[in-house]
UniProtKB/TrEMBL annotation:
<protein>
    <submittedName>
        <fullName>SEC-C motif-containing protein</fullName>
    </submittedName>
</protein>
<feature type="domain" description="YchJ-like middle NTF2-like">
    <location>
        <begin position="1"/>
        <end position="90"/>
    </location>
</feature>
<dbReference type="InterPro" id="IPR032710">
    <property type="entry name" value="NTF2-like_dom_sf"/>
</dbReference>
<dbReference type="InterPro" id="IPR048469">
    <property type="entry name" value="YchJ-like_M"/>
</dbReference>
<dbReference type="Pfam" id="PF17775">
    <property type="entry name" value="YchJ_M-like"/>
</dbReference>
Length: 93
């Protein structure tokens, strides 16, 4: 999760696509112009350990659009695919 947040922060589309499950991966990432991601706050996790095949991460991602602060709250689902953890989908609230 932290590496994907960092990839969003620097606009690394290639990394985001590689770490996205092929069944749910979009063709492109829609980065928002003028948004600067500033901080990631992990709220909770479930699973995701060495013996798990699935995991959940609830987080708040803080950002600035111009000088206006904002926050995105999401519960993300991850799964192992070819031995690596990949993002499957998330629910933004």
């Amino acid at each position: 999760m932290r590496s994907r947040f960092s990839a969003f922060a620097v606009g690394d589309e290639a990394y985001l696509l590689v770490t996205w499950h092929p069944a749910t991966r979009p063709e492109r990432i829609g980065f928002e112009d003028g948004t600067r991601w500033t901080r990631l706050e992990i709220v909770r996790t479930e699973g995701g350990g060495p013996d798990d095949d699935r995991g959940l991460v609830e987080f708040r991602a803080h950002y600035l659009t111009g000088t206006e602060p904002g926050e995105m709250h999401e519960v993300s689902r991850f799964a192992r695919h070819d031995g690596a953890w990949v993002y499957v989908r998330g629910k933004v609230s």
